[in-house]
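Need tokens for this chain, all 607 residues.
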Amino acid sequence: MITSDDRVVVVGAGPGGLLLAGELALAGVPVTVLERRAGRSAESRALGLQARTLELLQLRGIAQRFTSRGNPLDHFRVTVGSSRIDLRRLDSPFQQLNILPQSQTEELLEQRAVELGATIERGAKVVGVRQDRDGVTLSVAAEGSDRTWEEHAAWVVGSDGSHSAVREALGIGFPGKTYPYNIVVGDVRLAKPPKDGMLIEVGKTGLVVAIDFGNGWWRMGVVDWSRPKENSEPATPQELEEALTTIFGYDLGVHDPLWMTRFKFQMRQATTYRQGRALLLGDAAHVHAPLGAQGLNMSMQDAMNLGWKLAAVIKGEAPGEVLDSFERERRPVATRVLTATDNAIQVMMSQKLPVRTARRLVIPNILKTGRGHQTLAGYVSGLAWHYPPAGEGPHAQLVGRRVPDTVLRLADGATRHLAELLNPGRFVLVDLSGGRFSEVAAPWGDSVVRVQAQLSGRSPMSDYQGILVRPDGYCAWAGGRSDSQTLRAALLTWRGEPRPQQPAPKPAPEPAPEAVAPAPAPKPATEAPAPAPTPAPKRATEAPAPAPAGTAKSAAASAPSADAAAAAAPVALPARSSKQPRATARARQQVSESIPQAPGSTGTRRS
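Here are the structure tokens for all 607 residues:
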């Protein structure tokens, strides 16, 4: 039985920490979030939810909360040979990058975590961490006063950014590098905005990342090596306008800045993600150059990977070794992202003629091929990343990969979405064998939702007789009719020995899942009243932020219903060429290496 002695303290109320708190609370684990800031950020900061992140939110029935507020962009362009990445080709209900300020993402995630029973304590700065075999003690100071106290917990998770107090207190290394240039970021209006809603403009003196909020406001991030300045110097609208004019070649008409900042960016990764009863995720574990909206999404995807594992270990529903899979799975993803963004920033910022020539020739040619476009779109969307399979065998190809949402047809003719069945955060066994695999999983009781069904249409599951799907939507096992023993082995690996079934505790209140469908393509932005930097509807004490004018709509009559928990019982299965300067070979290789490699990607449809 879970008690207050099993409490988890999450340090940092950013998107990763808040999503983790919600996942732990959903599982009935007591959780407290300590945040140094007295209130949510008044600035938009990170923005852009990838397709994979939206899919993960859909697994908990809350994706529409985010898509209804965001500005959905269905493509982006990089001005090296006019390379265009088309997100409409993604094999996902979310064929978009959803532009939503971090302040709004935090607001929605905090609401969910609190609804489920999590505690959020603000103005609490962690100044020390020590641990023993039984738990963790945190030394905490009230921000802005002399008051100090201690917090005791069974586990602590540091989700407190690149300057993580948890990581530093534990002495975990954070090797890497700081780039020799800084970036100026501003949320502004433009008299002559770019034609593309997301654009990476590469010029002779640097690059610009331009993102449309959808309501007349734009995020402009400029890296300009020709104007080096110290981080301590405040960013100004004049500086931003001059740099934009130099790189674009014309005056965009910058005016009405909401927020501006200057910072240096880094590439670093923690030497370990776990030390005893302390874990790290998000920017506390890895940071990289700000390209492709990766940081925010990696943090949330870390949280979804860790949440169900930590909860299962605390509740005695999984062996302790399951926690080791968090770093084993997430570190390689972070390493690839760090490598890809580092290569990309070096290629885009290079002033060497062979590299500049190669980037104009190589990148467009790569994107002209179906495989090249698939790889880069899969990287940008987060759909391409997968985890190493836990075992070998003829059916191991699907193991560790994302299982797309699929419509299942039940014995009575009704249909259920796989995503709906995952709403409670449990394993789901899709049994296409007529009941054979449901019998194997029966000893694990309601910790595994067992569904006997048929597939409604072609899916990655079509080649199998059974699929065991993890709470985070990745495949834990796939097999044919004779693979009962491998299913049992997978259940033992992830769930441990089956335990005598106890009366189920009253579940934490989970908001009803919402219908989720891809957002329509963004309409031309219309002039809107100037927002203030933070969106906090119904909170009169907080200022608003540039809230994107997204128009995402629920469009599927077959979207998930509210009663996912009813699926715990098995369901009966019915019967059944250019004149430009030539690029050197080395330059071509360098540019090719800037395209991230995601072996075996299944993120997009084939061209």
